[in-house]
Specification:
With 81 residues, the chain is α+β, with helices and mostly antiparallel strands. It has two helices and six strands; from the N terminus they run E-E-H-E-E-H-E-E. The protein is globular and about 25 Å long.
């Protein structure tokens, strides 16, 4: 499971809506579509091995808790590297 703690911040629509919650049961393609169509940044508050296995590809297999990722084309870029 993972928690998007005030997760996908800064919607492309210009709003400042924040989304938080557990996304453990969201299908991979659904999460991918939501992120790439709606957000500029994604903050991961917490993550476990199940999340890494299910969604790791979105994060170039380098997903970490308490980490900010920038949405660029079809990939998420770690803002702390």
């Amino acid at each position: 499971m993972a928690e998007l703690g005030r997760a996908a911040q800064g919607q492309r629509s210009g709003g400042s809506e924040r989304v938080s919650g557990n996304i453990a049961y969201m299908p991979y393609e659904q999460l991918k579509e939501i992120i790439f169509n709606n957000y500029d940044y994604v903050y991961i508050n917490d993550v476990d091995e199940e999340f890494k296995e299910e969604y790791g590809e979105l994060f170039n297999y380098n997903v970490k808790k308490h980490n900010l990722y920038k949405v660029q084309e079809n990939k998420l870029v770690d803002m702390y590297e």
